Amino acid sequence: MDEKYLIDTQCWLYWHINPEKLSNEQYQILENGDNDIYFSTVSSWEIMIKHKLKKIKLPALPFRYIPDRIKKDRLKVLPFSLENSLRIENLPNHHADPFDRFLITQAQAGDMIILTDDPIFERYDVKLLM
Predict the structure, then answer these.
(1) Which candidate, 10, 6, 7, 5, places its Cα nearest to that of 97?
(2) Structural domains present in the chain
(3) Helix ranges (DSSP H) in 18-97
(4) End-to-end CA gap in the chain
(5) How confident is the model at residue 1 (pLDDT cuts 50, 70, 90)?
(6) Nearest CA among 20, 7, 75, 84 for reference residue 47
(7) For a tag site, which of 10, 35, 75, 108 has the least CB within 10 Å?
(8) For 47-90, what is each residue's pLDDT tens digit?
């Protein structure tokens, strides 16, 4: 069975803006067009908020940049579902960032490997590639 990867927001930004911050294995998986890489709608929401607050810079406005990159990179969009939101209740409170908590529940529900550089993710019952 082929692996499914969920890219966390920070790694997605690294991939396009600072690829040297990715691990070699993460970079190879992302660049290999045969892998199933998912981009969560949660990440889109996070990027839009952080861009509006001027916490991140992008080469173009996010409402154009995000869909253009998703298409160019042939990523699959993963919507955030009611099931995902309800899983939060049983998720330990190791991580304060709600966006990361949402990504963890999506990865758990979809049996996905999260591409991340966040060591707090290791405290959860989720597959990781750091």
Answers:
(1) 10
(2) 4-129 (3.40.50.1010)
(3) 24-31, 41-52, 62-73, 82-87
(4) 21
(5) low
(6) 7
(7) 35
(8) 999 999 999 999 999 999 999 999 999 999 999 989 888 888 88
pLDDT reading at 93 higher than 60 = yes
CA dist list (Å): 68 to 5, 65, 110: 20, 5, 25
- Tens-digit pLDDT profile for residues 18-34: 999 999 999 999 999 88
Provide the token pair at 124: 């959860």
Please report, for the chain, how many H helices and E strands are present, in that order.
6, 5
CA 17 to chain centre: 15
Dist CA 35 CA 20 (whole Å)? 20
CB atoms within 10 A of CB 49: 13
State the DSSP code for 23: -
Residues 6+ apart with CB under 8 A from 78: 6, 38, 39, 40, 41, 106, 110
